[in-house]
Design brief:
With about 210 residues, this protein is α+β, with helices and mostly antiparallel strands. The chain has helices at about 15-40, 45-60, 65-90, 140-155, 185-200, and strands at about 1-10, 105, 110-115, 120-125, 135-140, 155-165, 170-180, 205-209. It folds into 2 domains: about 1-15 and about 105-200, Small protein B (Small Protein B, Chain: A); about 20-90. Strand 3 and strand 4 (about 120-125) form a beta hairpin. It is globular. It starts with a strand and ends with a strand.
Protein backbone atom coordinates (compact mmCIF):
# COMPACT_ATOMS: atom_id res chain seq x y z
CA UNK A 1 0.00 0.00 0.00
CA UNK A 2 1.35 3.41 -0.99
CA UNK A 3 -0.09 6.63 0.42
CA UNK A 4 0.31 10.06 -1.11
CA UNK A 5 -0.99 13.40 0.15
CA UNK A 6 -2.54 16.08 -2.03
CA UNK A 7 -2.35 19.63 -0.73
CA UNK A 8 -4.76 21.85 -2.63
CA UNK A 9 -5.84 25.45 -2.31
CA UNK A 10 -9.54 26.22 -2.04
CA UNK A 11 -11.03 29.00 -4.11
CA UNK A 12 -12.56 31.85 -2.10
CA UNK A 13 -15.93 30.75 -0.69
CA UNK A 14 -18.87 33.14 -0.52
CA UNK A 15 -19.57 35.09 2.67
CA UNK A 16 -22.04 32.57 4.07
CA UNK A 17 -19.74 29.59 3.57
CA UNK A 18 -16.74 31.54 4.85
CA UNK A 19 -18.51 32.31 8.12
CA UNK A 20 -19.43 28.64 8.57
CA UNK A 21 -15.86 27.50 7.87
CA UNK A 22 -14.36 29.99 10.32
CA UNK A 23 -16.87 28.93 12.96
CA UNK A 24 -16.04 25.26 12.36
CA UNK A 25 -12.32 26.00 12.75
CA UNK A 26 -12.90 27.82 16.05
CA UNK A 27 -15.21 25.18 17.49
CA UNK A 28 -12.84 22.37 16.49
CA UNK A 29 -10.00 24.16 18.29
CA UNK A 30 -12.17 24.49 21.40
CA UNK A 31 -13.13 20.81 21.20
CA UNK A 32 -9.48 19.68 20.95
CA UNK A 33 -8.58 21.75 24.03
CA UNK A 34 -11.60 20.46 25.94
CA UNK A 35 -10.89 16.81 25.17
CA UNK A 36 -7.26 17.30 26.19
CA UNK A 37 -8.34 18.72 29.55
CA UNK A 38 -10.74 15.80 30.04
CA UNK A 39 -8.03 13.26 29.20
CA UNK A 40 -5.70 14.87 31.73
CA UNK A 41 -8.42 14.91 34.40
CA UNK A 42 -9.20 11.24 33.76
CA UNK A 43 -5.49 10.43 33.48
CA UNK A 44 -6.07 8.37 30.35
CA UNK A 45 -4.88 7.95 26.79
CA UNK A 46 -7.58 5.40 26.02
CA UNK A 47 -10.00 6.31 23.28
CA UNK A 48 -12.62 3.95 24.70
CA UNK A 49 -12.42 5.51 28.16
CA UNK A 50 -12.50 9.10 26.91
CA UNK A 51 -15.35 8.36 24.53
CA UNK A 52 -17.40 6.63 27.23
CA UNK A 53 -16.87 9.34 29.83
CA UNK A 54 -17.11 12.50 27.73
CA UNK A 55 -18.65 12.02 24.30
CA UNK A 56 -22.28 12.60 25.29
CA UNK A 57 -21.37 15.87 26.99
CA UNK A 58 -19.09 16.91 24.13
CA UNK A 59 -21.81 16.38 21.52
CA UNK A 60 -23.96 18.87 23.41
CA UNK A 61 -21.18 21.41 23.81
CA UNK A 62 -19.70 21.48 20.32
CA UNK A 63 -21.67 21.97 17.11
CA UNK A 64 -19.60 19.61 14.99
CA UNK A 65 -20.31 16.62 12.79
CA UNK A 66 -20.06 13.40 14.77
CA UNK A 67 -17.05 12.12 12.82
CA UNK A 68 -15.26 15.48 13.10
CA UNK A 69 -15.87 15.57 16.85
CA UNK A 70 -14.31 12.11 17.16
CA UNK A 71 -11.30 13.37 15.21
CA UNK A 72 -10.92 16.21 17.75
CA UNK A 73 -10.88 13.58 20.48
CA UNK A 74 -8.17 11.61 18.68
CA UNK A 75 -6.13 14.79 18.17
CA UNK A 76 -6.21 15.48 21.90
CA UNK A 77 -5.24 11.92 22.77
CA UNK A 78 -2.36 12.02 20.28
CA UNK A 79 -1.00 15.18 21.92
CA UNK A 80 -1.24 13.62 25.38
CA UNK A 81 0.43 10.37 24.26
CA UNK A 82 3.29 12.34 22.70
CA UNK A 83 3.78 14.30 25.93
CA UNK A 84 3.76 11.17 28.13
CA UNK A 85 6.13 9.34 25.77
CA UNK A 86 8.71 12.14 25.92
CA UNK A 87 8.36 12.36 29.68
CA UNK A 88 8.86 8.60 30.13
CA UNK A 89 12.05 8.75 28.04
CA UNK A 90 13.42 11.46 30.30
CA UNK A 91 13.15 14.19 27.69
CA UNK A 92 12.04 17.72 28.41
CA UNK A 93 8.32 18.01 27.84
CA UNK A 94 5.76 20.72 28.53
CA UNK A 95 2.12 20.03 29.14
CA UNK A 96 0.43 19.99 25.72
CA UNK A 97 -1.71 22.95 24.72
CA UNK A 98 -3.52 23.91 21.55
CA UNK A 99 -2.46 27.54 21.53
CA UNK A 100 -2.97 28.13 17.82
CA UNK A 101 -5.70 27.05 15.44
CA UNK A 102 -5.65 23.35 14.64
CA UNK A 103 -6.33 21.99 11.14
CA UNK A 104 -9.76 20.37 11.14
CA UNK A 105 -9.58 16.67 10.40
CA UNK A 106 -12.53 15.21 8.51
CA UNK A 107 -12.99 11.45 8.40
CA UNK A 108 -12.80 9.75 4.99
CA UNK A 109 -16.47 8.78 5.06
CA UNK A 110 -17.60 12.32 5.91
CA UNK A 111 -16.51 14.21 2.79
CA UNK A 112 -16.79 13.73 -0.95
CA UNK A 113 -15.32 15.07 -4.18
CA UNK A 114 -17.40 16.14 -7.16
CA UNK A 115 -16.65 17.37 -10.65
CA UNK A 116 -19.02 20.01 -11.98
CA UNK A 117 -20.14 20.08 -15.64
CA UNK A 118 -17.74 23.01 -16.11
CA UNK A 119 -14.85 20.75 -15.13
CA UNK A 120 -14.22 22.44 -11.78
CA UNK A 121 -13.64 20.13 -8.85
CA UNK A 122 -15.37 20.80 -5.54
CA UNK A 123 -15.04 19.23 -2.12
CA UNK A 124 -18.13 18.75 0.01
CA UNK A 125 -17.83 18.44 3.78
CA UNK A 126 -19.82 19.01 7.00
CA UNK A 127 -19.30 22.20 9.00
CA UNK A 128 -21.67 21.49 11.90
CA UNK A 129 -23.66 18.73 13.56
CA UNK A 130 -26.27 16.93 11.53
CA UNK A 131 -26.05 16.13 7.85
CA UNK A 132 -25.77 19.61 6.34
CA UNK A 133 -22.68 20.13 4.18
CA UNK A 134 -21.13 22.86 2.06
CA UNK A 135 -19.31 22.53 -1.27
CA UNK A 136 -16.19 24.61 -1.95
CA UNK A 137 -14.34 24.71 -5.31
CA UNK A 138 -10.73 23.51 -5.48
CA UNK A 139 -7.88 25.23 -7.33
CA UNK A 140 -6.69 21.92 -8.77
CA UNK A 141 -3.48 21.71 -10.81
CA UNK A 142 -3.05 19.20 -13.64
CA UNK A 143 -1.24 16.91 -11.19
CA UNK A 144 -4.15 17.13 -8.75
CA UNK A 145 -6.65 16.43 -11.52
CA UNK A 146 -4.77 13.29 -12.57
CA UNK A 147 -4.87 12.00 -9.02
CA UNK A 148 -8.54 12.84 -8.61
CA UNK A 149 -9.25 10.94 -11.82
CA UNK A 150 -7.36 7.98 -10.32
CA UNK A 151 -9.75 8.20 -7.39
CA UNK A 152 -12.75 8.31 -9.72
CA UNK A 153 -11.54 5.23 -11.58
CA UNK A 154 -10.96 3.28 -8.39
CA UNK A 155 -7.17 3.17 -8.69
CA UNK A 156 -6.89 4.46 -5.13
CA UNK A 157 -8.98 5.11 -2.03
CA UNK A 158 -9.46 8.37 -0.20
CA UNK A 159 -8.24 8.68 3.38
CA UNK A 160 -8.92 11.43 5.89
CA UNK A 161 -8.92 15.11 4.95
CA UNK A 162 -7.60 18.17 6.78
CA UNK A 163 -8.69 21.74 6.20
CA UNK A 164 -7.07 24.91 7.53
CA UNK A 165 -6.65 28.63 6.99
CA UNK A 166 -3.19 30.18 6.73
CA UNK A 167 -2.08 33.52 8.16
CA UNK A 168 -2.92 35.25 4.91
CA UNK A 169 -6.52 34.07 5.05
CA UNK A 170 -6.18 31.44 2.30
CA UNK A 171 -7.85 28.06 2.78
CA UNK A 172 -6.23 24.70 2.01
CA UNK A 173 -7.11 21.03 2.18
CA UNK A 174 -4.87 18.00 2.30
CA UNK A 175 -6.24 14.63 1.23
CA UNK A 176 -4.51 11.30 1.58
CA UNK A 177 -4.88 8.78 -1.26
CA UNK A 178 -4.05 5.13 -0.76
CA UNK A 179 -2.78 3.16 -3.74
CA UNK A 180 -2.47 -0.60 -3.86
CA UNK A 181 1.08 -0.91 -5.20
CA UNK A 182 1.54 -4.70 -5.11
CA UNK A 183 0.67 -5.81 -8.63
CA UNK A 184 0.55 -9.52 -7.84
CA UNK A 185 -1.67 -9.07 -4.78
CA UNK A 186 -4.79 -11.08 -5.71
CA UNK A 187 -7.04 -9.14 -3.35
CA UNK A 188 -5.95 -5.87 -4.94
CA UNK A 189 -6.41 -7.28 -8.42
CA UNK A 190 -9.95 -8.39 -7.67
CA UNK A 191 -10.86 -4.99 -6.21
CA UNK A 192 -9.27 -3.17 -9.15
CA UNK A 193 -11.18 -5.37 -11.63
CA UNK A 194 -14.47 -4.75 -9.80
CA UNK A 195 -14.00 -0.98 -9.84
CA UNK A 196 -13.04 -0.97 -13.53
CA UNK A 197 -16.24 -2.81 -14.37
CA UNK A 198 -18.27 -0.31 -12.35
CA UNK A 199 -16.45 2.52 -14.13
CA UNK A 200 -17.42 1.06 -17.52
CA UNK A 201 -21.04 1.13 -16.38
CA UNK A 202 -20.71 4.79 -15.48
CA UNK A 203 -20.62 4.31 -11.70
CA UNK A 204 -17.97 6.21 -9.74
CA UNK A 205 -17.68 4.89 -6.17
CA UNK A 206 -15.77 7.88 -4.75
CA UNK A 207 -16.68 10.83 -6.95
CA UNK A 208 -20.04 12.06 -8.11
CA UNK A 209 -20.58 14.31 -11.11
Amino acid sequence: MQTITLKMKLLSPNKGKLEKMIRMLEIYHQACSWFLAQAEALNTVSRAVLNRETYKQASGLFDLNRGTLQCAMLKALSARRSYLSRKQRGKKASLPKFETMVPVMVRQDCYSLHQLPSGTWVIKFPVSSGRSQIAVPIAASLYHVRKLIDLARGSCRQGSMEIWRDKGGEWYVSISLQYCCIKNDKKCQVEEYRKKQLHKLGYFPNIQS
